[in-house]
Amino acid sequence: MLVHFPIALLLTGVVMECLARKRPTLTRPASGILVAGVALGWLSAAAGLLSFYTVPAHTEQAHTLMWWHLGFAVFALLFFSGVAVKRWRGRQAAVTKPVLLIELCGAILLIITAYLGGTIVYHGGAGVEPELLSQEVRSEHHHGDAGHGASSETHSESSHEHTEGEDQHEH
Predict the structure, then answer these.
(1) Which of 13, 18, 98, 132 is a Cys-bridge partner for 34, taking CB atoms 3.0 to 4.6 Å apart?
(2) CA distances from 106 to 92, 131, 133, 153 (A)
């Protein structure tokens, strides 16, 4: 649930900023929602970084997408952090077109990030209890001992079997 609140707050903040151009009374609440979204976004980022290193079994595709997810998330959070600081300082004034453009770019990055996160979990099995996954997924990819019975070795050939054509990776 931690990841859903910043997404909802940041996207709501952008929509409110757009609406505030016609209804100035929404300017101040929109700024507050953006600040709250960024604060929760940083908490979510910390949880995501922890998850990246402790997630139990998942597919190689999910692992590749994790890097893309991480990159898009960093850029989205940086965009919104800059916007939130600027908007909080000028929360009485309507948003300028350049700042609104940055917010819209951040929203696009955030939507891509959310999509990748959903794909990683729902199609790649990352973060799902290994006992619930098929044997193929359980034996395909581990990140060390995630507290779920995975090998305590990290990425040795004995704990991580590679299929033909699969690249090895490290964290």
Answers:
(1) 13
(2) 22, 37, 34, 38
pLDDT, residue 90, reads 85
pTM, two decimal places: 0.73
Q: Which residue has the tokens 């960093």?
A: 74
* Residue 80: burial class (beta carbons within 10 Å; 0-12, 13-18, 19+): buried
Handedness of CA 29, 31, 33, 35 (dihedral sign): negative
* pLDDT single digits (tens) 101-121: 999 999 999 999 999 999 888
φ/ψ of residue 71, rounded to 5: -65, -50
Please enumerate, as own/partner, the contacts of 107-110 that have beta carbons within 8 Å and a separation of 24 or more.
107/10, 107/11, 107/14, 109/72, 109/75, 109/76, 109/79, 110/7, 110/10, 110/11, 110/76, 110/80
Q: Are 159 and 142 in contact (CB under 8 A)?
A: yes
How far lies 164's CA from each of 59, 161, 167, 168, in Å? 15, 10, 9, 11
Q: Do 107 and 58 touch, CB atoms closer than 8 A?
A: no
Closest CA to 126 of 48, 56, 53, 54: 56
3-state SS class at 1:
coil
